Amino acid sequence: MSEKTTSAPVLTDDDVLTLLRAVGASAGVTAGDHGRSFEELGLDSLARFEIASRIKNRYGVDIEDDITAETSPAGVRDLVNGRLAGA
After folding, report:
1. Which of 51, 46, 50, 42 minimizes the C-alpha distance to 75?
2. For residue 82, is pLDDT > 70?
3. Contact 42, 25 (CB under 8 A)
4. 16 and 73 Cβ atoms separated by less than 8 Å
5. 8 A C-beta contact, residue 16 and residue 41
């Protein structure tokens, strides 16, 4: 028996951090801040839209309607990875 391997992309913590910084998050934001909401991070609806657009372009996952001010970057990561896994 061989183990099934997948080459499906995964949204990593580093990817999330790169996205956050690309849309205007403070340079002081770290992976430790991924549990904070977009509102707490000072990211508005335009920043959330831009993150959703970049994720759709790179991963083919549409999450625009799922991201709110109360959503956290960790929540986005989990949502994207769950959809990529077919969950």
Report:
1. 51
2. yes
3. yes
4. yes
5. no
Q: In sequence order, what are the residues at sequence separation of 6 or more whose Cβ sits closer than 8 angstroms to the Cβ of residue 42?
A: 25, 26
Distance from C-alpha of 30 to C-alpha of 2, rounded to nearest angstrom: 38
* Span 37-75, pLDDT tens digits: 999 999 999 999 999 999 999 999 999 999 999 999 999
* Dist. CA 40–CA 81, nearest whole Å: 23
How would residue 8 be classed by pLDDT, with cut points 50, 70 and 90?
Answer: low
Is-above-0.85 flag for pTM?
A: yes
Question: Is the CB of residue 81 less than 8 Å from the CB of residue 31?
Answer: no
Q: Are 40 and 69 in contact (CB under 8 A)?
A: no
| Alpha helices (H) along 1-87 | 13-22, 45-59, 73-84
